[in-house]
Write a structure and sequence with these properties.
The structure is a single chain. By secondary structure, the chain is α/β, with parallel strands linked by helices. The chain contains 8 helices and 7 strands. The protein has 2 domains: about 140 residues, HAD superfamily/HAD-like (Rossmann fold); about 60 residues. The strands form 2 sheets. Strands 5-4-1-6-7 form a 5-stranded parallel sheet. Strands 2-3 form a two-stranded antiparallel ribbon. β4, α5 and β5 form a beta-alpha-beta unit. α1 crosses α3, α2 packs across α3 and α4 packs parallel to α8. The relative contact order is 0.19.
Amino acid sequence: MKYKHIVFDVDGTLLDTAECILYSLRQALLTVTGSSPEVEELTHVLSRTSAANMEHLGITDKAEETIALWVANEEKYSDMMQPFAGIPKLLDTLKNAGCQLGIVTSRTHEELDLVLNPLPISTYFSVCICSDDTEEHKPSPAPLLKYMEETGAKSGEVLYIGDSLGDSMCASAAGAHFAYALWGAHENAHVPAEYYPEDPARLSELISD
């Protein structure tokens, strides 16, 4: 493989979580505030931290309550979240090729454990950087730089895989290469990347030596 370290975003990249995230958030908003946008109008939340989403939605005095209910709803509907087709095989291929696999996500560790721990693919990842590990978050390079610090990886050895412009900006600012996961992307604008794989199998082909 062309890279020693392959680092994944979670939502929209490893896991097909969008429907569960948006449905769970809408139910939390309805419970706490009595009103909510339709699910289709909430897609902007998919690339932010939960705290940043509360600020964006104008929820200040009940932010913690809303986030707690949002997380509880995700746990309730967690069977809606599954790896994208081809992800388990991709991870196995990369691991067998000697790559170190990691995660950089806008989820907190608690939120990541909720969606990842029940799945067999959780064992593939040696280092997971979450939003509670850094003061700055994507699109800042801080989370990816934290991964490099913890693993000793050099920027030229790292490929970051994500589904948003924020992920692309994070990788670029950290000096890493970026693969834009078209299989889970919701962005309408052009997203700069070294690779544009349509599915996980194509990504494996693109980064093979």
